[in-house]
Design a protein that fits this description.
Order of helices and strands: EHEEHEEHEHEHEHEHH
Helix content: 25-40%
Strand content: 5-15%
CATH class: Alpha Beta
Structural class: alpha/beta
Distance between the termini: 30 Å
Strand order of the largest sheet: 3-5-6-7-8-9
Shape: globular
Largest sheet: 6 strands, parallel
Radius of gyration: 18 Å
Number of strands: 9
Length: 250
């Protein structure tokens, strides 16, 4: 059970415990292939911190953005093998796998149309992200295509797309269209600004979020997680992460 309470007469804050979450589905822990960690040592340091937070299963998700990070299953899985070997050597009690965070661009659409191999989360879930500054003209159609191709779309950090903030009904339409939403834990801490925090809390209040993710790129992100339970959401919201631990990952 998550502990984030103050004892009577005790001014010392207890450490946050994410054991009830258990599975992290969004991070950038493979060295040198995107804007995440740049060394095996940095990756191991972050994995140790995630274990301390209660995470026992990790699905790290390197970016696939064709203008920046041209990652493929080969580059991602070879990097995963390197990290797995380091985890075994360090005797860390954690299971680590890889999927990817796919930016919806022309290359992604092409991969969907040609049936290229994609790296997924358990349950054939496909983690996708949208542009931050300009909305896609065909977001709903693209998500429908993902479903039509046999994948379950999971939209990464929907609270961070500021162009949705003026029309929150968009989020309900996405969910009604079959998309699962993954909240960044740091969105509850003010890390991305007050507008993102307000939207994150609205999504939780309206029960539109399915999964929680760290989206950890560096150690500072994990250190800041302690600030993310100011209003108790990490304790009271029924995130579905733990259920993924019981689904066989292909």
């Amino acid at each position: 059970m998550l502990n984030w309470l103050f004892g009577k007469g005790d001014s010392k804050k207890k450490e946050l415990d994410l054991l009830h979450i258990g599975v992290d589905i969004h991070s950038h822990l493979i060295p040198g292939i995107d804007d995440g960690v740049q060394s095996v040592e940095e990756s191991l340091t972050m994995i140790k911190k995630m274990i301390e937070l209660g995470i026992n299963q990790i699905y790290t998700t390197p970016h696939v953005i064709w203008d920046c990070y041209r990652n493929t299953p080969d580059t991602i899985l070879s990097g995963l093998e390197m990290i797995r070997n380091a985890v075994v050597e360090a005797q860390l009690p954690v299971s680590i796998n890889a999927a990817a965070e796919y930016f919806i661009d022309e290359h992604f659409i092409q991969m969907m149309q040609t049936g290229e191999r994609l790296l997924t989360l358990p349950g054939n879930r496909l983690l996708v992200e949208l542009p931050y500054s300009t909305p896609l003209m065909n977001t709903s159609e693209t998500l429908f295509m993902i479903v039509e191709k046999g994948y379950q779309p999971v939209l990464a950090h929907p609270e961070r797309y500021a162009y949705f903030h003026n029309d929150l009904s968009v989020y309900r339409k996405l969910v009604d269209g079959g998309c699962e939403l993954q909240l960044n834990v740091l969105s509850l801490s003010g890390h991305y600004g007050p507008g993102v925090t307000r939207t994150a809390e609205w999504l939780l209040e309206n029960h539109l979020i399915t999964f929680l993710g760290t989206d950890a790129h560096k150690m500072a992100h994990l250190d800041s997680i302690q600030k993310s339970n100011r209003h108790g959401w990490l304790l009271k919201y029924p995130f579905q992460n733990e259920k993924l631990a019981f689904i066989r990952h292909k």
